[in-house]
Amino acid sequence: MAIFNDWRFWFVVPMVLALGTVVLFPSGYLVWMSLTHWIVTDPERYFDGVGNFRVLFRSADFTSAVWVTLVYLVASTALMVAFAMGLALALSAPRTPSALRSIVIMPLVIPPVVAGFTWRFLMNGEMGFLGAFLLPGLGLKMNMLADPTGAMISVVIADVWSRAPFMFLIFLAAMQSIPRDYYEAIRLDGANVFQEFLHVTLPMIRPAVVVALLFRVIDAINTFELIYVMTKGGPGRATQTLALFGWKSAFQRFDFGLAAALGVVMVVVTTVCASIAYRRFLRPAT
Amino acid sequence: MLKMLNRAALAATLTAGLTAGLMAATAPARAETTVNIVGFGAGFAWADLFGPSGTEKTQKLLDFEKKEGITVNMEYADEEVARQKVLLDLVNGTGNYDLVMLGSDGAVQTFSAAGYLEPLDGHLDKAKDYFDAAKVYKPFLEANTVDGKLWALPYYSFGPGVVYRKDIFDKYGITTFPKTTEEMEAALKTIKAGLAKDGITDVYPLTMRGAPGEEPSLDLAGFVFAFAGYPAWFEGGATTPAEIKAKKAKPIFTGDFKKGFETFVNWAKDYGPPGIATHTWVDMMNLYGQGKAVVLLPSAINGFAGIPGSEVPAVKQFSAYGPSPIGPSGKPIESFWTFSVGVSNFSKDKDAAYKVLAFMTSEPVMEDFATQIGWPYTTYPSIMHGPVLTAKWPKETLDGVEAAFISADPHYFPYIPELNEFMDKIGTAASEAIAGTKTTDEALAELQSWAEERMERAGYYK
Amino acid sequence: MIRRRIHDDGPPVPASVRIARLAFTIFALAFVLLPIAWLALGSLKTRNQALALPPQLIFTPSFDAYSAIVAKGFLGAFQNSLIIALSNVVLTLLLGTPAAYALARMTGKAQDNLSFWVISVRMAPVFAVILPLYVLFKALGLLDTRVAVSLAHLTLTLPLAVWMLLTYFRSIPEELDQAAMLDGAGPLQILLYIIVPIARPMLASVAIVVFIFSWNEFLLAFVLTARGAQTVPVAVASLAGTMSFDWPLIAAVSICSMIPALIFVGFAQRHIVAGLASGAVK
Predict the structure, then answer these.
(1) Its pTM surpasses 0.80
(2) What gap in Å lies between CA B393 and CA C9, rounded to an integer?
(3) Is A146 within 8 Å of B276 when comparing Cβ atoms?
(4) In angstroms, what separates the C-alpha of C74 from chain A's closest C-alpha?
């Protein structure tokens, strides 16, 4: 076979094997679980066809989690892109002290669990600096953790704080690699800074933005610790995303079949969406 | 130059990482009998055995190990993660943990039904020197008894009660302690009005817990018990799978369950702090300890937890204990729980495991625990009336706490394998109703239809 | 590496834009620093000071929390985290670099599908893969080893590394490879002696990103190991779960947990920017 004589094959094989071990078996196992009636409260474990999926699609938890996930995904991603882009634009200016960049990326080294605790404490409506002191002082009466909207806003803010620095780094790198001649050329045509951004910066960093978005969307769908620590998915189910619902199903309600079914649904939907995004934006050699 | 250094540093760290990783991969071999445990609260639970860091064995433990020829390995973790590890171990029959931590609010019921635990009745006589069932408060054992068998021994445990600020009660003219739920609500109303009149906005009449999930359910089930007079979850108050099956008892969350649920939600909304819909016991404890709550109920222990560390003088000086209010049915608002430990059915040496368990729940160990935390809670009457606690608490407090233990009905909620799911669903419904995303009726209607379907699916009504 | 700057000597930026930029920078700094300052202050307070409102800004700092870290044996958690994160960096780079290089030199469907497959590995939610991973490592006898954790972390870090490197390698002209090939060098030699030296800054950046992701991840790290393998995030979480809510200690551990990662990031911040940037230089 010609492929065995191709060095590229041998270069890729170790990675494929390593990832394959950790991915292929679990994927197969997950699918098998999703078709199995497997709940710890019932000693019997048996093949149940699409039974778990039927229960899943009919549960109110699932419907609410889909909406919560969508709201969270769109809100946090939009804010994060805006914030990261703003930072990248502001800090890519000449003579920006590099200390500023170092400060801005500090949240990157704080584990999401810790970020969650910190923001939970800050936003606490009775004892937190923001929730009980600064925001009420500014006339904002909403309880930032116990009000359904407030809780969602808090979680989104904490998430932007925690993950935007990574996106900022990618944007910044992409912006700094734009050859200067491009700007000189458009300036000769009398363009202002906004036109520069629109006609040079944005098109040039598009691939970086798409890659960052792709990773971001996947991360957002799977965000767990941060939300769990801050609100436990509450109040009620106001911040219970699919990832939290799946976690609950498996480890608090002991229904592994149902959790697996949800896992399968999530993987399929994410893969389809990502694949469309990939083919649409990334395939033409970027 | 700097760059070179950086590279060298990078290379050095990478090599170090690789070697360290390889070294770490080779684990030491095991000798003699070992018993592995996973638990939470390093420096809190069993600090007398594993030290304040949870990593150094104390002389007491070393003596035990030497005497019995057993090595005890403790692994501390965050509660959620620790529970998850236990579950993975049990589900896969790994047997990595000989002793597993449980709770009388779901884990005992589910894991015993699933066949993951060793019944302890046959072991009780084997290590009587360490654990003698006759010496502890009976209800704590009953709480861990399912289907007539004992599945776990109690460690840290509590019953219901009220911790309140006597000075504020006095200030607003509440001179007799409210004994019934009606009187309690009237008192809360008076306090609320008084606080408002005095322009105090950062002190709340009541603190409870309303976070989604199982958190509020233990207390909420107590409200239901007090208002209905029985565990009003299923028709006829059926509490065991056998009873539910025999009577084909349907859930009654929109029936007798409702009054207690509604009261819990209304009290939380009307008298609780604004953030109560996401509050856990930590928030209850902190609010009370910071002097920002007047009444804490029905899990009084969370109030006692907040008192010792408080720097608000009035909290230390004027906190008092009162019995849990009695509902219209004549039963008190219950809140009863034991953090208990069981023997894994997959343990390779169940006798050794039981021996360690008996030691870990023995009188001397519990006495050290009482010394360390100093709250008026213990599983042994002898410790309750012993020198440690009598030196710290007035007699009426200790007697009150004890009375709440003895008169408690640990089975104030059904003992079914699905309990965990129900606790989670009920708590989340309460959180929704408190936050106002749903009305009480909507939340209960959804709970009812979920429960009907769930019980149907579990084959109760075949 | 050639580092170019935008606007170096372009037309003057309008004052309004400069003011907006300044305002945004100030806002962003405040936003980013507030929680960190809160943590830092909290770590120097007593438990009750930390809970007090309005917040006390002037107080006698207490270093009790920091000495408690040493006393309570949290240093072990730092060691565990360091070992897990560093071995993950090594594994990721060893596996990812050749693969990314090969992918960069591929065209057509194979390259297409493979790189998509790599990213799709990240798509499974953790709650769904924990049990299967546990079953797998139990079967392989790898349960309770750090190898298992490193392998599990690969699903998070390898896709990221491969994608970062892939775009970078594509920007290195293929003529370089061909010239070396004419001199008789094989693919491995080209990778080792030509590509890797050029890509060193980028590799450093990838190493840092991988380090951070592995350092911060805690569920897998904890579930797949037993006694004594507690990592820093797990230690922080377990502190919050005890009956005392020791915020100063939580804060102190959090602040300390930043230090190793900050050192790692600090000395290479320039590499990250330069490395990522050079990725797209034509």
Answers:
(1) yes
(2) 77
(3) yes
(4) 15
